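Researcher: Quick test of sequence recovery. Tokens follow.
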């Protein structure tokens, strides 16, 4: 595997030359091999880059630059890499992009991406965040109905009945449908969702109580007993998620305020990035307002039944899509990461 990783990395460097921010079909192949070999570091330099360009691999001048499946696989495997490294926010963003790729028919890749997206959303937010409005209708019409077990997890997490133990309900559902999750290789993520639910229950106690008994912690968080509650509290304290003191003799837990330290240089750097991004967005807005193509579209009376906004062009030739003369890469570099898909 290490030899294959080296060959793919060298091949990508030869193809893109000095323009490292170009996406090729070899990128997802490299990510896949790194995942299978459990050697993740070689993929990181290619994963952290903003990718505003696609390497042209087809001879057709008017068709797409490459098979769209490689674009979907880039986001899917990239999300898996981030998830393996415990960087769930980045993994969630990558899966979100994979689910929002324009499509006219369902694909196995997008089905797998959506399943992972659901679990990451439950892990990070406790609910499934709605995908962007520009997602393909195929997602709602065909892909989501193919994931009934994951929709069931969503319903469990949306249950707000009093004293309802979401974590235990998910574990029971996992046990009843273990074969399905084992086939999808998502058992580990489901268990992380369960742990996240219990940890969030403990965090809510820190917002309401200064001190509380271990038995009450176990009862309110639906844990087995006081020892189980103490185990959770100590692990969360060790990981810096809460600041807690435990009086073992009296069985009392004391929640202390979390201390936060801000690096002035990091704060200044983030502020400068915001100012730069704001200036670029204003420049983008100024140029688009005076662009003749934009003015002609806005000022042209619309025929009945014609949408005011042109349909998504998909992954086609860039010449067919109107874009003002602003480099998207500049905006992404100012933001410090690829632009996330938002509603």
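Model:
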């Amino acid at each position: 595997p290490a030899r294959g990783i080296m060959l793919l990395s060298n091949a990508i460097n030869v193809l893109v030359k000095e323009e490292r921010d170009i996406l090729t079909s070899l990128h997802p192949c490299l990510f896949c091999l790194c995942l299978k070999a459990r050697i993740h570091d070689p993929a990181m330099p290619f994963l952290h880059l903003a990718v505003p360009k696609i390497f042209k691999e087809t001879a057709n001048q008017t068709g797409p630059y490459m098979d769209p499946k490689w674009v979907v696989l880039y986001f899917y495997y990239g999300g898996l890499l981030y998830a393996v490294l415990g960087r769930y926010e980045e993994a969630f963003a990558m899966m979100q992009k994979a689910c929002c790729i324009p499509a006219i028919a369902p694909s196995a890749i997008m089905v797998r991406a959506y399943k992972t997206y659901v679990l990451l959303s439950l892990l990070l937010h406790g609910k499934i965040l709605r995908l962007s409005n520009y997602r393909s209708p195929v997602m709602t019409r065909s892909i989501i109905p193919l994931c009934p077990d994951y929709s069931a997890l969503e319903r469990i997490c949306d249950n707000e009945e009093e004293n309802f133990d979401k974590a235990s309900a998910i574990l029971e559902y996992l046990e009843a449908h273990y074969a399905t999750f084992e086939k999808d290789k998502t058992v580990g993520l489901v268990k992380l969702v369960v742990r996240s639910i219990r940890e969030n229950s403990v965090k809510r106690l820190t917002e309401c109580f200064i001190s509380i008994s271990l038995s009450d912690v176990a009862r309110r968080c639906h844990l087995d007993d006081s020892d189980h509650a103490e185990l959770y509290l100590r692990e969360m304290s060790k990981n810096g998620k809460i600041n807690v003191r435990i009086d073992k003799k009296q069985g009392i837990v004391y929640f202390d305020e979390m201390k936060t330290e801000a690096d002035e240089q990091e704060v200044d750097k983030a502020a400068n990035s915001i100012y730069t991004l704001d200036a670029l967005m204003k420049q983008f807005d100024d140029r688009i307002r005076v662009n003749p193509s934009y003015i002609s579209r806005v000022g042209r009376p619309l025929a009945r039944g014609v949408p005011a906004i042109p349909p998504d062009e998909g992954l086609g030739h860039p010449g067919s899509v109107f874009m003002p003369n602003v480099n998207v890469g500049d905006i992404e570099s100012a933001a410090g990461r690829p632009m996330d898909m938002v509603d």
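The first helix runs from residue 2 to 16.
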